[in-house]
């Protein structure tokens, strides 16, 4: 006779201890720890910022790629230094070819691009682009329009985009990278610098939010055009960003009256205020993390700082009562 389990349903995995994260979301499993219980990995819980390891070199307006587990920060201020983060501490590695600040950047700690910025040697506006391969920087194809001052960036080193910034006038230009060269595409509706971006976005789905002078405007990119969607709750500039077009974070920055510690979460439709940063700051470097695993390092309070903060938003683990 055929066993019931061979014709109906699927086996439940046995796992030891609580398991969370996107790869487990929606999964029912049997926890073999202790007396053993059935558990379900549900939606996201409450996120919070925690202190991470300090940069070796305090800086503002640098570039960054990666998340709170593995990140790279580069340039900023007058330095060409690159530092890598292993989830707890930063280590200095090979420098940029051109020291620069106020850059656009996107990618991971092992493969990323830095674009534009202000040359720290002669204060000229850069059009040069450098690519990081996990060990060294190499110069590749220039962007079409030199720009600096809070350029938004999203994507990977093989497929990404930049938008906004200054030329020195505030820019509305958008450029897309295909792994070989840059192409100008449709402009932002509102020209602005010092923007936040969904840094883990793609060339077909990205967010641009905030910007100079203290804007709340959010725009959404669909691969062809930008369109305005719901505003931030608090208008600001010089803020950090992470996540995707469907799930993003915006944090820190500068309002019309003060530095901000505010964090807002985007759910694909609107922004909601969530847990604040421990240190209000502007001009921080922000990585290519998700809305559940983000990082920011350095920046400016009343002085340039080196401290790092990590955002974590765990999934909810529910115990199934079978009694």
Write structural notes for this entry.
By secondary structure, the chain is mostly beta strands. The chain contains no helices and 30 strands. It has strands at 13-15, 28-31, 37-44, 48-52, 63-66, 71-74, 82-85, 90-93, 100-101, 104-107, 112-115, 118-119, 129-132, 137-140, 152-155, 160-163, 174-177, 182-185, 196-197, 206-209, 218-221, 226-229, 240-243, 248-251, 263-266, 271-274, 285-286, 293-297, 308-312, 315-320. The protein has a four-stranded mixed sheet, with no helix packed on it. Strands 4-29-28-27 form a four-stranded antiparallel sheet, with no helix packed on it. A four-stranded antiparallel sheet has the order 5-6-7-8, with no helix packed on it. The radius of gyration is 21 Å and the shape is globular.
């Amino acid at each position: 006779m055929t066993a019931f389990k061979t014709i109906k349903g699927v086996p439940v995995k046995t796992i030891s201890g609580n398991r969370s994260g996107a790869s487990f979301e929606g999964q029912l499993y049997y926890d073999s720890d202790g007396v053993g219980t059935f558990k379900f990995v549900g939606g996201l819980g409450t996120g919070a910022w925690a202190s991470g390891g300090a940069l070796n070199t305090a800086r503002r307006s640098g570039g960054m790629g990666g998340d709170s587990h593995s990140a790279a920060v580069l340039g900023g201020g007058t330095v060409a230094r690159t530092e890598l983060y292993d989830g707890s501490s930063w280590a200095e590695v090979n420098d940029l070819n051109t020291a620069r600040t106020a850059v656009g950047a996107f990618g991971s700690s092992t493969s990323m691009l830095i674009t534009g910025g202000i040359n720290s040697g002669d204060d000229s506006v850069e059009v040069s682009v450098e690519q990081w391969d996990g060990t060294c920087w190499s110069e590749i194809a220039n962007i079409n329009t030199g720009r600096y001052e809070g350029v938004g960036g999203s994507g990977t080193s093989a497929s990404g985009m930049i938008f906004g910034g200054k030329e020195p006038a505030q820019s509305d230009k958008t450029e897309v990278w295909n792994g070989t060269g840059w192409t100008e595409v449709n402009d932002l509706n509102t020209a602005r610098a010092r923007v936040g971006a969904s840094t883990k976005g793609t060339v077909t789905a990205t967010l641009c939010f905030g910007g100079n002078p203290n804007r709340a405007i959010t725009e959404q990119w669909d691969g062809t055009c930008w369109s305005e969607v719901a505003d931030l709750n608090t208008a600001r500039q010089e803020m950090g960003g992470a996540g995707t077009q469907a799930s993003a974070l915006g944090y820190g920055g500068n309002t019309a009256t003060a530095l901000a510690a505010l964090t807002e979460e985007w759910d694909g439709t609107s922004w909601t205020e969530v847990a604040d940063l421990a240190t209000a700051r502007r001009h921080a470097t922000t990585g290519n993390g998700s809305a559940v695993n983000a990082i920011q390092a350095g920046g400016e309070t009343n002085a340039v700082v080196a401290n790092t903060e990590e955002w974590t938003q765990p999934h909810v683990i529910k115990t199934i009562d079978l009694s």
